[in-house]
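The authors assume throughout that readers already know how a fold can be written as discrete tokens. A single example would do more here than another paragraph of explanation. An entry of this sort, consisting of the sequence and the corresponding backbone structure tokens, reads as follows:
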Amino acid sequence: MAKPIQLGFMALILAFSTPTFAKGERYGVVASMKTIESTEYEQGMSGELSTISYGLVHTRPIDENNNRWRWWLGFNYLSDYIDAPANGVYQEVTNYELRIVPQFALGNWWAFTPYVGAGLSLGYSQYSDRWAVDEDGYKYGKQLDDIDQFEVGAVFSFGTVIKIGSNPDAHLQLIPQASYIQPLYNDGLGGLELSVALLF
């Protein structure tokens, strides 16, 4: 291989690896078990839903001189159906969510760094195949209109970073986290969430 090609190849590797392994900056994936609370509609209550969503995560320090603070930026996706309670509303939901959560580390004990966080959930949800159901759970009448809406929620989270590996700048991070989402604008998806993220 010619020397200029070798140098170009090495420069390409460095260009992509440096941001990934910069101190305090991580990229990864997350899986979440959500327990979504019911929503009240004119035709009745929707049911509660326990489902799994998947997403991408990026974290970076808010202030590089203070390693107790960092941003948690996440993009999450879920698609599922919500069974209706008696005299409630059946519907199917697809949700795209951008989550912005500043986090504050409570300390650093060996491989564990527990933290708390509070921020915003910005989502776009589509509710389709919507039906009113009777007291026996059977659909009746005319199909209800679909709902497409932007949603905003407050996010409160608690978790811990578990460092895997000895290199302080390039170790893996396993992050179990519990969050609660409280809808603020448009009565959207809210409730308890338990998640596990793996960051590189």
Observations:
- Residues 1-22 have pLDDT under 50 and may be disordered.
- The first strand starts at residue 26 and ends at 36.
- Helices lie at 3-20.
